Amino acid sequence: MVHSAYDSFELLHDCPTKIEAIGSHGAKLFLGGTDGSLRIYAPESSGFNHSLPSDHRSQTLELHKEPYVLERTLVGFSKKPLVSMEVSESRELLLSLSESIAFHRIPNLETIAVITKAKGANVYSWDDKRGFLCFARQKRVCIFRHDGGRGFVEVKEFSVPDVVKSLSWCGENICLGIRREYMILNATNGALSEVFPSGRIAPPLVVPLPSGELILGKDNIGILVDQNGKLLPEGRICWSEAPSVVVIHKPYAIALLPRYIEIRSLRAPYPLIQTIVLRNVNHLFQNKSAIVAALDNSVYGLFPVPIGAQIVQLTASGNFEEALALCKLLPPEDSSLRVAKEGSIHLRFAHYLFENGSYEEAMEQFLASQVDITYILSLYPSIVLPKSALVPEPEKLVEMNWDTSNLSRGSSGVSDDIEYSPPPQLSESDEIRESKKMSHNTLMALIKFLQKKRYSVIEKAAAEGTEEVVLDAYESNRHRRSNKGRGNSPISSGAREKAAILDTALLQALVLTGQSSSALELLKGLNYCDIKICEDFLQKRNYYAALLELYKCNSMHREALKLLQQLVEESKSDHVLGQKFRPEMIIEYLKALCGTDPMLVLEYSIPVLEKFPTQTIDLFLSGNIPADLVNSYLKQHAPNMQATYLELMLAMNENGISGNLQNEMVQIYLSEVLEWYSDLRAQQKWDEKVYSPTRKKLLSALESISGYSPESLLKRLPPDALYEERAILLGKMNQHELALSLYVHKLHVPELALSYCDRVYGNILHQHPLKSHSNIYLTLLQIYLNPRRTTKNFENRINNIVLSQTTGLAKVGLTTSHKGKGGRKKVAEIEGAEDSRYSHSGTDSGRSDAELDDPTEGGSDIMLDEILDLLSRRWERINGAQALKLLPRETKLQNLLPFLGPLLRKSSEASRNFSVINSLRQSENLQVKEELYNHRKTVVKIGSESICSLCNKKIGTSVFAVYPNGKTLVHFVCFRDAQSMKAVAKGTPLRKW
Question: Mean pLDDT over all residues of the chain?
Answer without folding.
Answer: 78
